[in-house]
Specification:
Length: about 210
């Protein structure tokens, strides 16, 4: 009887030992599994955080580049507008100066004589032998009118018609059989676009020459 009780007790202890060993092993497995899941969770969270951070940085970088590009474009546009305003102001001054210079030249006897001679050479080359109508300022001297009339008469064989025009400040306007040679102050400055282009080109050339020096 005592042997049976001893055997049962021994078996119970062995079973308890096995159960305890299995429990410890299972706890270790569960702990390892938990550690693995925790590590996986941490890595996933870390990865997601890096992705969000990278996306945030990229978004900020893109926005910064866009703001910088917009600022540079605005500065460039402002620079062009300032340059255009500066050029317009310079062109206006040059044209006004040119107008004053031509008016002064017409009032000077020697320079007016050279101007009229140039007009005569152009008219002689471009206008046919017909009745010329010559419009001129009121202040053109009668002696110069007579001298010019003689040249034209000798060339065309027909006495020209002289017309005093209040619209002409300087220079002459000659018409012959529908053709017109406008060498007045207004005529010389009439092609404003071409004149402005030439002035701007000259100003830019001066700036380039200054930069090279």
């Amino acid at each position: 009887m005592k042997q049976d009780e001893s055997r049962v007790s021994q078996q119970a202890e062995e079973l308890l030992g096995l159960t305890s060993s299995w429990a410890e092993k299972r706890c270790a497995e569960i702990s390892a599994e938990c550690d693995s899941k925790v590590q996986e969770l941490l890595e996933t969270a870390h990865h997601d955080a890096r992705v969000r951070l990278r996306s945030h940085f990229e978004s900020d970088r893109t926005a910064s580049r866009q703001r910088l590009a917009a600022l540079e474009a605005a500065q460039e546009r402002h620079k062009r507008e300032e340059l255009q305003r500066h050029e317009v102001m310079l062109v206006k001054k040059v044209i006004e100066g040119l107008k004053d210079e031509l008016t002064t030249r017409w009032k000077n006897d020697e320079q007016r004589s050279g101007w009229v001679e140039t007009i005569w050479q152009l008219a002689h080359q471009r206008l046919i032998k017909a009745c010329w109508t010559i419009s001129h300022p009121q202040d053109w001297s009668s002696d110069e009118v007579a001298g010019f009339e003689q040249k034209v008469h000798e060339y065309t064989g027909i006495a020209p018609v002289f017309v005093v025009s209040d619209d002409i400040e300087a220079g002459l306007l000659i018409e012959a059989d529908g053709a017109k040679l406008d060498c007045t102050l207004k005529g010389l400055l009439s092609s404003r676009y071409r004149l402005e282009s030439e002035i701007i080109a000259a100003l830019e050339q001066d700036e380039n020459n200054q930069d090279d020096s």
